[in-house]
Amino acid sequence: MSDADIQALSDIGGSSAEDPPAPITDARPVPRITIQAFCESPELVDVIDAAAADRRMARAQVKVHGGGVAAAAEFYREAATPNLIVVEAKLAMPQLEAELDRLADVTDPGTRVVVIGSINDVELYRGLIQRGVSEYLVAPVDVAGIIRTISGLFVEQQDAPIGRTIAFVGAKGGVGSSTIAHNVAWSIARGFESEVVVVDLDLAFGTAGLDYNKDPTQGIAEAVNAPERLDDNFFDRLLARCTDNLSLLAAPATLDNAYDFGEFAFEPVIEIAQTGVPTVILDVPHMWTSWVRKTLFGADEVVVTAEPDLANLRNAKNLVDLMRQERRNDAPPRLVVNKVGLAKRPEIGVNDLSQALGLEPIATFPFDGQLFGTASNNGQMIAELEPKNPNADTFDRMAASVLGRAEAKGARRSLLAPLLEQLRGKKAG
Question: What number of other Cβ atoms are within 10 A of residue 369's Cβ?
Fold first, then answer.
């Protein structure tokens, strides 16, 4: 493929005009709190607005006011105080302490205060902490710093840990995204001996039950249709146990009902899943609705599976560009190229596909209808059917990659091993 062809492919679906900031990997989603910021500079207003738009702040209610500490003290003489007050203060130490004392007189005991100032002084910091200020940040601050500070103040209060969500979605229907998601979940549960919940979000046509050889009588439909009953006990009763560390919230996979949902319909289900296990695998169907968009934007990791053809490239490019735009403080989606080498199909080279998307694949799977078809028909994972198959190692390495962990024990091959072995076999033939 020529350089001009590659450039044309890269232009499909638009492109990002600037590089995104470094991803935030050490801040958890902020709970449902109220935040009010009093800013003296337009630069801080922009930072607070950008932080409020981040997915980790989606549950928080953020409002920005003009003015600094004095404006906040005056405002709360007649208004209730929120969970967190952020104030910008361009004052010397004696004036700042006096203004904060005025603010303390009108705030509720449970309200936390973060001060953003221009003086970098240890004594000032100690004095403010002694006065009850929760944190002091030296300007200029960035979006990541604001989010980390708020997350550190409030997430620690949660009784249960919040698990990471990893959303798998296909660039087209039938590209194997669900199969890959289910095998990666199995590798996480087995290789890292870590609890995993797979949530099958394709209520009409989901295949997780078939892949794990389970036919539960209840699952995600009961959870999403009865949010008022959703608690830990009810959620646990809906799960089907697949292995010691792997549970499934199955889709009904029937057409008895129309599955029309609002933007926030699945949010309570995902939240309750996160409180119980460290990893939640979201098997997202290939469709574009408000709730699919919400789910992808809110996930900790997004994995896009594509086949090496033009339609997949176009769709993947649109997805990747949108994720980069809407998730600017997160790492870009991870790319998986599946069904490479399908007989008699004209294909885009993996390198060309990667270059057009601006992503290196974390895994490349050669087409193997016999292996994957047999595993699906048997209700088995690839590593169960053929433990020594190179694809099993690839799934193990994918599991390590999406978890941001070292490789699971026994994983030895490169991510491209299955494809390389297939090519070597062709050359030998």
Answer: 10
Partners of 170 in the β-ladder: 305
Q: What are phi and psi of 126, to 5 degrees?
A: -65, -40
Closest CA to 342 of 174, 211, 171: 174
Helix (H) or strand (E) holding 113: strand 112-117
Domain spans, the chain: 34-157, 164-428
CB 193 within 8 A of CB 245: yes
Confidence of residue 3 (pLDDT cuts 50, 70, 90): low
Strand residue runs (E) in 242-330? 246-249, 279-283, 301-306
Q: Which residues contact 188 (CB under 8 A, 6 or more apart)?
A: 194, 196, 279, 281, 399, 403
CB neighbours (10 Å) of residue 373?
10
H or E segment to which residue 129 belongs = helix 122-130
Residue in this structure with the two tokens 């007189």, named with its chain if needed? 105
**What totals of helices (H) and strands (E) does the chain contain, helices first?**
18, 13
Residue type at position 253: A
pTM listed for this prediction: 0.81
CATH level 2 (architecture), domain 164-428? 3-Layer(aba) Sandwich (3.40)
- Taking only the tens place, the pLDDT of each residue in 84-99 is 999 998 877 778 888 8
Helix (H) or strand (E) holding 223: helix 220-225
Q: What separation, in Å, do the N-terminal and C-terminal C-alpha atoms of the chain show? A: 26
Q: Residue 22 in contact with residue 142, Cβ under 8 Å?
A: no
Strands 279-283 and 301-306: unpaired
Residues near 317 by beta carbon (within 8 Å), at least 6 away in sequence: 9, 12, 13, 14, 356, 357
**Is pLDDT above 80 for 255?**
yes
Handedness of CA 139, 140, 142, 144 (dihedral sign): negative
Contacts of 69 (CB under 8 A, 6+ apart): 38, 87, 89, 91, 96, 99, 100, 102, 103, 115
Task: Give 145-159 as a DSSP string.
Answer: HHHHHHHHHHGGG-S
Domain 34-157 has CATH 3.30.450.40: no
Q: Is the peptide bond before 268 cis (omega within 30 degrees of 0)?
A: no
| Tokens representing residue 263 in the block | 């933007």
pLDDT for 11: 60
Beta-carbon contacts of residue 155 (< 8 Å; ≥ 6 apart): 27, 28, 29, 30, 31, 162
Evaluate whether 34-157 and 164-428 have a shared fold: yes
